[in-house]
Specification:
4 helices, alpha+beta, 6 strands, about 25% strand, globular, six-stranded mixed β-sheet
């Protein structure tokens, strides 16, 4: 998550987005997943939350333990939201839900790819949305064990607000 946020820092600053990362303890935030593919999933979800947001909007990244065996990571925004009647088209490859007329760049394959990658890693991806208010994409993945010998920077709950600065929160995956 940290690496993805660092990559998107310029977009966050340009759009004046308030980005918040809420994380549980280190042990609760570990998932069993392919690091490279999971990074691609979060790059897509966080990038979309920024580019389909309103200027000065917010993006919140939240991680919680859904069950003893499942970790849930949510990426929510205060953007335009998605019409309920179009949700069934959301994960179709090359379907941008008419966003091509908004001037926002994209190919329409990001969410389809993200869904496929999450499923291959034994997880699920879903969305809750309200038109005109924003969307919340959630990824659930099997809980993993922290790597032996890796010591977290903080052993308590992390709740950091990124306000167009270089201070970033951490999610160990």
């Amino acid at each position: 998550i940290r690496g993805v946020v660092e990559l998107l820092e310029t977009e966050v600053e340009e759009r004046k987005i308030q980005l918040t990362i809420d994380l549980p303890s280190f042990e609760e935030a570990c998932v069993l997943a392919d690091k490279v593919r999971l990074r691609q999933v979060f790059l897509n979800l966080i990038s979309n939350a920024i580019k389909y947001n309103r200027t000065g909007g917010t993006v919140n990244i939240n991680c919680s333990q859904e069950t003893e065996a499942i970790v849930k990571i949510e990426v929510s925004d205060t953007g335009m939201g998605i019409p309920q009647e179009r949700l069934n088209e959301l994960f179709e490859p090359f379907n941008r839900l008419d966003a091509e007329w908004t001037g926002i760049e994209g190919t329409g394959i990001g969410l389809a790819l993200a869904q496929k990658l999450v499923h291959l890693m034994g997880g699920t991806i879903g969305v809750k949305t309200k038109e005109g208010e924003g969307s919340c994409f959630s990824v659930t993945l099997p809980k993993g064990q922290p790597p032996k010998g890796l010591i977290p920077a903080k052993d308590h709950q992390v709740n950091e607000r990124i306000n167009n600065s270089n201070t970033l929160g951490l999610l160990y995956i």
